[in-house]
Each structure stands twice: as structure tokens, then as C-alpha cells.
Amino acid sequence: MLISTLSPIRATRMNRFNSTVPDDEYLADSNVLFYLSDAVTQLLEHKEEYTQFGVIRYFAEYFSSVKNSNHVLFREYNYIRATPHNRASFIRVFWRCYRQIGKNGDLLSMLEYRSLLQLLCPDFPLEILQSAARIVLMDDAIDCLMSFSDFLYTFQLQFYYQEFLDSVLVIYQDLLAGKSPNTVIVPTSTSIEQLPSAAAEENDKEEQQQDGVEPSTLAQCIDAFCDRFKHSHPPRSCMREVLDQFNKVSYYSFLMGLAKHETINQTIGALPSKAELLIDPEMDQELDKLIAQISVSPGSNSSGSAVGGLKEVQKKASPRRNIHHRRKMEVESDGSTEETDSSEN
């Protein structure tokens, strides 16, 4: 079941029926043990609520929610960033929840996007939003307004490849400082967590005085780094393709090129192409049904009906609610929270 949560390329490589893949490698790459541990933790924390329906059924429901990508709703930040599948699932949930913003053509500030994210993940940090905003605005004033599509694809890149981008920033700064490729200190996996704050401060100072670096030199350093990087990173061919477009490249120009690259978007597998970003017939049908229910609701005014409908959808979508209670209500969740679309109309 869990093999389908991986991207098609990884799923093929890590198929559990492929005898060439060692068991330990499959378990590590598919994160089965992580999800099993979380499932047990959730069961112990809500034992009285879940065990009355049977432990086997609980585990079936839990892994079904993981497969359907609705398991990240309202979970803590450390959980949604814990695996590549969790990150991709959260990106997709954010898109489906707030797609209406893009359809309306609304422009929002970084702090407004953060408020939307915190409705889905209450402790979502500001730093990632700041980094995404710098990509969109090319490190100009990050309090400017951004379109939904521009923000979404840059947020996807920054959130999904966070550790890699933080490391590339350190490499870029070393090159800006005049170090040769042979003396550039490539960050190790253990030092990545310490990079963002110091790197961002240094970058603000350096980029004000520099136009960029040689793309071929940056490509050489990045390629060497990818050889020993343990986290996810964009395909090397895509990064070379983006760098080949520049005579001189800045860090944020490079990232903007990556954010717009359709192959990288397909590799992550969370969002449709930009041409199809605002098209979601299934969501539109659910929204039409909800609006119809609100409009014909007897004995209450429209605002009261809307509030009631919103609360009902929230109860259906929330993973904090009893899993079997949602099933009893015959809800087939696909990872979306329709209430955000309805609230935008």
C-alpha cells in the first residue's frame, strides 16, 4: 500500500517485490517504520477512542489516510516535514484548500500566506515563508504582494528541498567571497540545520554588492555536493538546464528558474502544471454541492447556514476526529478541505 505514496520513479525503484532491493533500504526509503511508529503513538494517545472499533481497522484507516495524503492536516510542523511524502502531501493540501485565491486573482502578502498555512499547520514557521518570498521577489522587499501561482511553486521548491537549498546557499556565498571551487566548503548533512539564519544574514550583505557567480562554477560545486547529499534534491539535469540560461547567476535567480521548471514539479508530484493549476473538477463539484446545501437550508439565514456548513466540513476533514466516526459518516476523503474554497466565495 505505502509504495504508492512515493513518486512513480522512486516507487518503481523501491518496489518491495523487487528482490534486488535490500529490506533495510526499502524500509528506509519508504519510511514505513516512521509511519508505523506514529500510528502506534496516536493509538496510545487516543486508546479509548480508537480501540472500540478494533486495532486492525484503526491501522487500516491510518495507512489509508497516509496513502490518500490527508494525514498531514492539522498535524505539527515536525510531522509534516518528516518525510518527502508528508511534504508533498502538505503542498497538495495547501493548493486544494486555497485554489480559489488563484481563481479570484487575489494578491496576498507573505504574512497573509503564513496565516493560511497556519490554519493547516498551527506551528508552521515564518522562516520558510520568508525564503519563498525572497525567491518570488528576487530578494526585494518581502512584504510585497504575490500571486497565488507564483507563491505556490516557489513555496513548493523551498519546502520540499529545504535542506538542499540551504546548503546551496552556503556554496553560493563561498563563491561570491572569491573562493575557488576546490576550496569551497560543502556543508555536511549534520550542519544543515544550522544554516538558514546565518546564511540568510550573510546573503543579504553579499548580494547587495555582487551580480552573481559563474554558472559553470556553481554547477560544478553543486554536482560534487549531490554525490554525497543524503536528502532529496532536484534532478541534476534540471539544475544544469537552468544554469545554462545565465551568463551570471544569482542565488535567487537560480531558485526561481528551478521553481518554474516543469520537470521538477513533476518529480515532486504534488501540483499540476501551471496551465492546470486552477482546474479541479472534483473540487468544483463538491463546492457546488456545498453551496446548494447552504442555499436551500430552511429555517436559518445565509450566514448561519454557511457557518454550519463550514463546521460540518471541518469535522469531516479533521484527522483529529475519530477515524471511524468519519467513515460512519461515509466521507471519502481525498486530502482536501472544501471549507476553504467555500469560504472564498
From TrEMBL:
CDD domains xref list: DD_C11orf49
Keyword set, alphabetical order: Cytoplasm, Cytoskeleton, Microtubule, Phosphoprotein
Biased amino acid composition, Low complexity: 296-309
GO cellular component: centriolar satellite; microtubule
Biased segments, Basic residues type: 317-328
Localization in the cell: Cytoplasm, Cytoskeleton, Microtubule organizing center, Centrosome, Centriolar satellite
InterPro entries: CSTPP1
Start and end residues of each stretch annotated as Disordered: 296-345
Annotated Acidic residues bias: 332-345
Family: Belongs to the CSTPP1 family.
Task performed by this protein: Regulator of the tubulin polyglutamylase complex (TPGC) that controls cytoskeletal organization, nuclear shape, and cilium disassembly by balancing microtubule and actin assembly. Regulates the assembly and stability of the TPGC and thereby modulates polyglutamylation of the microtubule, which antagonizes MAP4 binding.
UniProt name for this protein: Centriolar satellite-associated tubulin polyglutamylase complex regulator 1
Species for this entry: Perca flavescens
